[in-house]
Write a structure and sequence with these properties.
By secondary structure, this protein is of the alpha/beta class. It is 62% helix and 6% strand. A five-stranded mixed beta sheet has the order 2-1-3-5-4.
Length: 516
């Protein structure tokens, strides 16, 4: 192999090696835990394609429908989709590092920092909007760093396409747009606003997002109601210091050193002057999130570009140190090792790797208690892990109650779930366990309505028997769902059989919605 051939091979390995390693890690542990609450919801959305949903835009449903249409709804196939998005995000971080002037060391370090950060491991472990949010932000950042350094201004059109598609995935893409505009103004890059293409790019993004906005208008802006309810009664409010502390913990202490180096370099180093706007953008985005009581992980998509900048800065700094003292070379090569070791050590806390009993022992050995970003009571597992437990068991409890119905009752029965996870679980396992159709008043399930359900025979998950007797002449306990590691509010969950409604329950449907 020629010298040039080895150089090309080295570049490919630095770029794709971390991406493929991360893909392999996620594939290896894809089915350690069961299906996730939100995955059940997205599968339900995928079965009812529309231009919008109460709590998210349509892209995740469309992608899920396409993917499962090809590969089926088996868990391994479902989990490979976010893993592929994660591998692409890792590769894009390496590409950003290369565009910032980094060599193979910087490219590889950026990819490792992104792929093995706890927050990235967690967000990429399940099918959700978040996996694709990371990808869209990374792709937009790759375009932005080129445009800030003189790439063809027509690439603002491509930026607009990415931003528009990203908005159809998750509305938080607006944070990136706001942050970048604020960063450009703070960096005094006024000349970029004189290009017609930056405005055309914005118009492209708005045009691509317009169908969802029209859907929102037609349905009374349900996402605004959802967001208001979540702030008031669901999400845990954090003060700014707690929010910042969570950033250090979620990105990982060692990994945080890399992105902090990147942020410092973007703001202070002369060689990063063309990209100073990116550093300012971080603070603009942070300010908006603090003012809107955002969950800490919402800031995660900005970190790949900071990790890339940090990797380039560390590569440059350590090259200078090595010219003065060869012994300091250990810093350059020891840091990637620490990133890998730290990432692997924290991985069981971030994504499902260890079985529940082993996870609990591991977390307790580190002095950690289960956590959540929501106002929920927890058991021995954090909410993220608890929401992957025993959904089939819940469906089997519904099946047990269904078996108590007569043949005529089964033909008209429906199952009412208190939330989209419960309704989604019944629908997901319905064919396998011969369950009645599911309905719910939670989020988009409310918009889908009761369908053909007459409410004459209703299997109700949870709720109170006395309250149900105000609505039905006959109420009996059909089954009880017991689980050790699910969310506590779903443990010892009764499955009521309610017959003969006292009034037209379909007419009451508009009054029972809850968007949160």
């Amino acid at each position: 192999m020629t010298v040039d051939g080895r150089a090309v091979q080295g570049k490919r390995l630095a770029l794709w090696g971390p991406a493929l390693a991360v893909l392999a890690l996620h594939a290896l542990f894809a089915t350690t835990y069961g299906i996730f609450r939100d995955e059940l919801y997205y599968l339900a959305c995928a079965a009812r394609l529309d231009w919008g949903y109460v709590d998210h835009p349509p892209l995740i449903a469309a992608v899920t429908a396409l993917w499962t249409g090809i590969f089926g709804e088996v868990l391994l196939a479902i989990r490979l989709l976010p893993a592929l998005a994660g591998a692409a995000t890792v590769a894009l971080a390496g590409s950003i590092a290369r565009r910032l002037g980094g060599g193979n060391f910087a490219v590889a370090l950026a990819g490792l920092a992104v792929g093995l950060s706890p927050i990235m491991l967690g967000l990429l472990s399940v099918l959700s909007m978040n996996a694709f949010d990371l990808l869209f932000w990374a792709l937009a950042a790759r375009l932005a760093v080129g445009l800030l350094d003189g790439d063809d201004e027509r690439l603002w059109l491509a930026f607009g396409v990415v931003a528009g598609a990203g908005l159809q995935n998750k509305i938080s893409m607006l944070f990136l747009g706001f942050g970048l505009v604020g960063g450009l103004l703070a960096a005094r890059r006024f000349e970029l606003f004189r290009s017609r293409y930056i405005w055309l790019g914005g118009a492209v993004a708005a045009l691509l997002f317009a169908p969802h906005l029209l859907w929102q208008r037609a349905h009374g802006w349900p996402t605004l109601e959802f967001m208001a309810n979540a702030r008031e009664s669901k999400n845990v409010a954090l003060d700014p210091l707690d929010f910042l502390a969570r950033q250090m913990l979620q990105t990982g202490p060692v990994h945080a050193l890399v992105w902090l180096a990147g942020l410092a370099a973007l703001l202070l180093a002369a060689r990063f002057r063309p990209w100073r706007a990116v550093g300012y953008a971080y603070f603009a985005i942070l300010a908006v999130m603090l003012s809107t009581a955002a969950k800490p992980y919402y800031l995660a998509p900005i970190y790949p570009v900071l990790w890339a900048a940090g990797a380039v800065a560390i590569e440059a700094w350590t090259a200078t140190w090595r010219s003065r003292a060869a012994s300091l070379g250990v810093v350059r090569w020891g840091l990637p090792g620490l990133v890998v070791l730290s990432g692997l050590a924290l991985a069981p806390l971030a994504r499902p790797i260890l079985p529940p009993d082993d996870y609990v022992r591991y977390a307790r050995a580190l002095g950690l208690e289960p956590g959540t970003d929501e106002r929920k009571t927890l058991g021995r597992l954090p909410q993220f892990y608890a929401d992957m437990q025993e959904w089939r068991g819940l469906a089997e409890a519904v099946g047990e109650a269904t078996a108590r119905l007569t043949a005529a009752e089964r033909r008209q029965a429906c199952v009412f779930g208190q939330n989209y996870g419960e309704a989604g679980a019944v629908e997901y396992f319905a064919r396998e366990l011969s369950l009645p159709p599911a309905i719910s008043a939670h989020n988009s399930w409310f918009l889908w309505g009761p369908g053909d359900c007459t409410m004459e025979v209703l299997l109700v998950l949870g709720d109170d028997a006395d309250r149900l007797r105000e609505l039905f002449f006959e109420v009996e306990l059909g089954a009880t769902f017991d689980c050790r590691d699910c969310m506590p509010y779903e443990d010892e969950l009764p499955v009521w059989i309610a017959r003969r409604p006292r009034t037209d329950l379909r007419a009451l449907w508009p009054r029972i919605r809850h968007f949160d």
